[in-house]
Design brief:
The complex is a heterotrimer of chains A (417), B (341) and C (294). Chain A is an alpha/beta fold. Helices cover 43% and strands 15% of the residues of chain A. Chain A has helices at 2-17, 44-54, 71-80, 96-101, 109-115, 147-153, 161-173, 189-201, 219-232, 244-252, 266-271, 277-282, 314-327, 335-338, 355-362, 374-389, 395-413, and strands spanning 34-40, 61-67, 88-92, 124-127, 130-146, 181-182, 258-262, 283-285, 300-306, 342-343, 366-367. Classes of the chains: A alpha/beta (417), B mainly alpha (341), C mainly alpha (294). At the B-C interface, helix 1, helix 6, helix 7, helix 8 and helix 9 of B face helix 1, helix 2, helix 7, helix 8 and helix 9 of C.
């Protein structure tokens, strides 16, 4: 049929244009042969790691990368196929869960024993004693503030959310800024994440220990929601549509004096063209805040790392391990790559933009939980909290709704009976 | 045409639709009644860059064994369809028996994801569809009155809202309707309220989405109707004028009946597309105020943990919803086609 | 044309009608001119969070670049981010989608219009139901089989999927066009000894173009504007324009470059301008010939 010949033609054209890295010469990175195929997000730090892996391409080693913002939607399917299309997926502590749940990644203990001598012990992500991933960068949300505005208002950078609220009140009353607080409070993933932060800060536990039974309808949950609502009073009225992009835009426009923001976004706040010099000079960062008199910071720690697929030959797995290890080799650190992320790699010198994340680690913040059903709760939170924020429901009702939504989802996935 | 000839002519298109639409529909149906096996959860210790902690994990060996015994998953019948995330039979039943008034009952319904989505979806469909057909018709008549040299450019600019991809069109408008944006400022000036924000209130968000929907789809109705006007029977029109018909009467009794089949066509397509409204909700970040069936599917598939069965059930519900919506139009078409043969 | 009617129209009515068109054009085209203008500014001016007039005057742009216009966003999108690759991919996808879609759609639509049997009605209804399936669900179902068959990521896969998803609409549209072509044409050819296919080839093909071009235009728009399918089944190097633009917007944890997205969006609209200008006569005449009898 006509369209088949056409498709074949197109396929031939595509093959000619595809970005396979075949380098000349002999074995590199100590890989004799094998196939390496990387899927991951596309931000600069991961591009750097991907490029490092590509250096290992040779006549007998094929290295492909597919770095895209939609990686999370394709990595499970791509690693479930046998043989897996992707030999490695770059994931974070929230997204590794989906790969572990579907059993598509392999334990790396033997490969670490054989080739991983120079990896830091703290780079290895172990679950039940088995190494499941190798982390290479860290991230966290922490305080970002405008030094000039805080000085003008006569307040110190807040150490707690209560201080932040009080400071916001002063700034508004003095007429310096109408909406002095910012935050990625967009309905959905972002809003749910802010709840997670706050709930952890109040000392809450998401699940009954050892089970998949959710337990957030408690005092900590109510307090967390109420604190979020109190903060939102000092935010732009459209805060439910503001993701971290929009919040950053507000910051650059000079409308915001304090916010809880991702460490990975601080650099661009200071350098993006068109942000006024005053904003650039006075954008300062500090560690995370606590809330409700607690000692655990109201934030979560994140890592990004790589995994190795299960449904591939041992040869490909070894090639993948070596290529990805080359991607995070200390020699790739230079002036440019140092600013791209908070690397967990030997020899990394923290840049000024990284002190927030380091302060978060030092304050012993909790990592984002790696529970198999945490994602289901995250989705339920993101869908139900807006009802509370818009004043349609009480905090208790919203928390009950979240639990009901989670229970329905967890039953469907087989976590609850 | 003989059955055999028909078969060969129709084979390629039928094949494409069977493989890429019918087969997935079947798998969607299966997915919505077969759920993943119960997951055996165990407590484990997990370590990473930030220290060690006790967490839970899926016991892969135990789970793998369950899958081996029943590769399709566990049969759950209509369980997913009836749970709180979908038709919420138990919750609705309880609301029915416990609520005192209709208002209270609908308030409870509006708190359940599917019914909340339906409320917006149906409002959107039934408000924007007639409006866009009327607007499209008005533009078509007005453009038809223009001089011939003006028609080309006017058609071209009129089509703009329709030809630009919805995701980008709605994103651009989202930036413009911001309280500080050009349209947002203009609306504040008209309403004489400097604090007005379209994005912060539920009713205003709904209106914004509906206006966007009409703006986006009116050009489609316009092109179709404009084409229809070109074939208007001149002699009927002229004899109507000789009989002293007013302008309104001519439109009512000559023009509208002539383009009625086109109205049916536009109605079918637009009812279906509006029922599946999705891009504007994403583009306008309106999730907090308005959700739709398609948005729920997106949310099911886009989380950290994908809820495939839920998405499948919602897709089936969407198909059923569209079928119910289109049924009256289709029954009429069927009667007409029957009358023809 | 309705020229004889035009003469009788009162001046007031014509004025009102002209005013209506002007208002409509303003509403329809304003956002695009605004975006076009804004695409030559820096991000802060484009968003004009401080004052909406900033988007017009561009004070920040002037501060940074010494002029109120800058083409940085275009250079960034086209050169640094290699937007042209996506343009090539989109062109390939569109071309093959339109050709394939029309080839098989024409055959099917013609058959539907010429077969008098009841099942044609049910086939059309089935096609309509098929069109009701949300593309997102379809795509989620494709992923695993595509990965297993090693089809994932390639342009031909996206082409086939787009063709299939668009078949219902194409069939409906072409079917109604063929209904308008008198049946006597091919019937008489058959009496002269042609097979059905010969009759189709020699008699119908020469007269079907207006309808086919209009349908092709809708297929083109679908492929050109698609996000749901192309974002999920194409690998990064084969990415088409719309997913590429979406990827400029950044993620939760990392800053995107919104101005690249704006510049790329404006660039993506320009071929549509040309296309609509070029085909507007065909669109109208095509619809006239066909869909009038729904």
């Amino acid at each position: 049929m006509k369209f088949i010949t056409k498709s074949a033609l197109a396929a031939a054209m595509m093959l000619a244009g595809s970005q396979l890295a075949y380098a000349d010469g002999h074995a590199k990175c100590g890989i004799e042969s094998g196939r390496v195929s990387v899927v991951g997000n596309e931000f600069p730090a991961i591009q750097t790691v991907g490029a490092g892996a590509q250096e290992c391409a040779s006549d007998s080693v094929e290295v492909k990368t597919n770095l895209t913002a939609d990686h999370q939607k394709i990595n499970v399917a791509g690693m479930t196929a046998n043989p897996a299309e992707y030999t490695t997926a770059i994931v974070a502590n929230s997204s590794i869960v989906a790969l572990i749940n579907e059993d598509v990644i392999r334990p790396l203990d033997d490969l670490v024993a054989k080739h991983g001598g120079d990896l830091n012990k703290n780079q290895l992500i172990t679950i039940d004693g088995k190494v499941m991933a190798v982390a290479f960068m860290a991230n966290a949300q922490h305080l970002v503030y405008r030094e000039d505005v805080l000085k003008e208002a006569g307040i110190e950078p807040p150490k707690t959310y209560e201080e932040m609220l009080a400071g916001a009140k002063i700034i508004r009353e003095k007429g310096i800024l109408q909406n002095p607080l910012g935050g990625a409070y967009k309905a959905g993933w972002n809003l749910a994440q802010e709840f997670n932060n706050m709930y952890i800060g109040f000392g809450g536990e998401f699940f009954k220990p050892g089970t998949a039974e959710v337990s957030i309808n408690n005092e900590a949950g109510v307090k967390a929601l109420e604190m979020m609502k109190a903060l939102s009073e000092y935010m732009n009225p459209d805060y439910l549509t503001h993701d971290s992009n929009a919040t950053s835009a507000e910051w650059k426009a000079g409308n915001v004096a304090m916010m809880n923001m991702w460490g990975s976004r601080v650099g661009p706040l200071r350098e993006t063209e068109g942000s006024s010099q005053q904003v650039v000079d006075n954008t300062k960062i500090a560690g995370p805040m606590t809330v409700g008199g607690g000692s655990i910071p109201a934030t979560t720690l994140w890592w990004d790392g790589w995994t190795v697929a299960k449904n591939i030959s041992d040869e490909d797995a070894e090639a993948t391990f070596l290529a990805m290890k080359n991607g995070i080799d200390p020699k790739m650190l230079n002036d440019e790559t140092m600013t791209q992320a908070v690397w967990l790699i030997e020899g990394y010198q923290p840049t000024p933009a990284a002190i927030g994340v380091f302060a978060t680690v030092e304050a012993q913040a909790k990592p984002y939980p790696m529970k198999p059903f945490q994602g289901l709760l995250h989705t339920a939170l993101g869908a139900e909290i807006p009802d509370f924020m818009t004043g349609k429901e009480s905090a208790e009702k919203t928390l009950a709704d979240i639990e009901a939504a989670y229970n329905a989802a967890a039953k469907e996935k087989g976590f609850l009976q | 045409m003989k059955h055999k000839t028909f078969f060969w002519f129709f084979l390629p298109t039928a094949l494409a639709m069977l493989v890429f639409i019918a087969a997935p529909i079947l798998s969607i149906l299966m997915q919505s009644v077969f759920l993943p096996h119960e997951q055996v959860v165990i407590e484990v210790e997990s370590c990473g860059p930030f220290g060690c902690s006790t967490t839970t994990s899926v016991d892969q060996e135990a789970t793998a064994k369950l899958w081996e015994e029943a590769p399709l998953g566990r049969f759950a019948g209509m369980q997913v369809y009836f749970d709180r995330g979908h038709l919420a039979v138990a919750e609705v039943g309880e609301a029915w028996s416990t609520t005192q008034s209709w208002g209270e009952f609908f308030g409870t319904l509006g708190n359940l994801p599917l019914y909340r989505a339906l409320a917006f979806t149906l409002t959107y469909t039934f408000v924007s569809t007639p409006l866009l057909i009327i607007l499209g018709f008005a533009i078509a008549v007005a453009v038809n009155n223009l001089g011939p040299w003006l028609k080309g450019p006017v058609i071209f600019f009129s089509l703009l809202p329709f030809v630009v991809t919805q995701l980008i069109g709605s994103l651009i408008l989202f930036w413009m309707v911001d309280a500080r944006g050009v349209i947002g400022t203009f609306i504040q000036w008209i309403a004489d309220d400097p604090d007005l924000s379209l994005k912060a209130s539920t009713p205003l968000t709904w209106i914004m989405l509906i206006v966007y929907g009409v703006w986006n789809s009116a050009p489609f109705a316009f092109v179709v109707f404009y084409a229809g006007l070109q074939t208007l029977p001149q002699d009927t029109l002229e004899s109507a004028m000789v009989d002293g018909a007013t302008r309104w009467q001519r439109i009512r009794y000559v023009v509208i009946p002539h383009i009625m089949p086109l109205v049916t066509f536009v109605l079918l397509i637009q009812l279906m597309d509006n029922f599946r409204v999705f891009e504007p909700i994403i583009g306008f970040s309106a999730e907090a105020h308005a959700t739709s069936l398609s948005w729920i599917i997106f949310n099911d598939l886009g989380g950290e943990t994908r809820q495939l069965s839920s998405a499948a059930a919602n897709s089936v519900l969407t198909i059923i919803g569209v079928s119910i919506l289109l049924a009256p139009v289709l029954v009429r078409t069927w009667r007409e086609s029957k009358a023809k043969t | 044309m309705a020229s004889s009617v035009v003469e009788n129209r009162s001046f007031g009515l014509r004025l009102g009608s002209a005013l209506f068109v002007i208002v409509w054009l303003l509403i329809a085209a304003f956002p695009f001119f605004w975006t076009l203008w804004g695409s030559f500014k820096v991000e802060l001016d484009f968003f004009s969070i401080l004052d909406w007039t900033d988007a017009l005057t561009g004070p920040r742009t002037e501060q940074v670049y010494g002029s109120t216009f800058t083409s940085t966003a275009y250079e960034g999108a086209w050169i640094q981010e290699e937007f042209w690759r996506s343009v090539i991919n989109t062109s390939l996808v569109c071309f093959f989608v339109v050709c394939t879609s029309l080839t098989i759609g024409t055959l099917g639509g013609y058959a539907l219009s010429r077969s008098g049997f009841r099942y044609t009605f049910w086939l059309l209804i089935a096609a309509l139901i098929f069109r009701a399936v949300p593309p997102m669900t379809l795509v989620a179902g494709y992923l695993l089989p595509f990965f297993e068959l090693n089809m994932w990521g390639h342009l031909p896969t996206a082409v086939i999927v787009l063709v299939a998803i668009n078949q219902p609409f194409t069939l409906w549209m072409l079917h109604s066009f063929f209904e308008k072509i008198p049946k006597d044409l091919d019937e008489s050819a058959k009496v002269d000894g042609c097979t059905q296919f010969q009759a189709f080839r020699h008699v119908i093909i020469p007269v079907m173009w207006p309808g086919v071009i209009t349908t092709g235009l809708f297929s083109f728009l679908l492929a050109y504007n698609d996000f749901a399918v192309t974002a999920m089944v194409l690998s990064k190097e084969n990415q088409t324009m719309i997913p590429k633009i979406a990827s400029f917007l950044g993620t939760t944890q990392t800053e995107g470059n919104v101005m690249f997205a704006v510049a790329a969006s404006v660039s993506a609209v320009i071929p549509l301008f040309i296309l609509v200008m070029f085909f507007q006569r065909q669109i109208v005449s095509g619809l006239t010939a066909g869909a009038v009898k729904g």
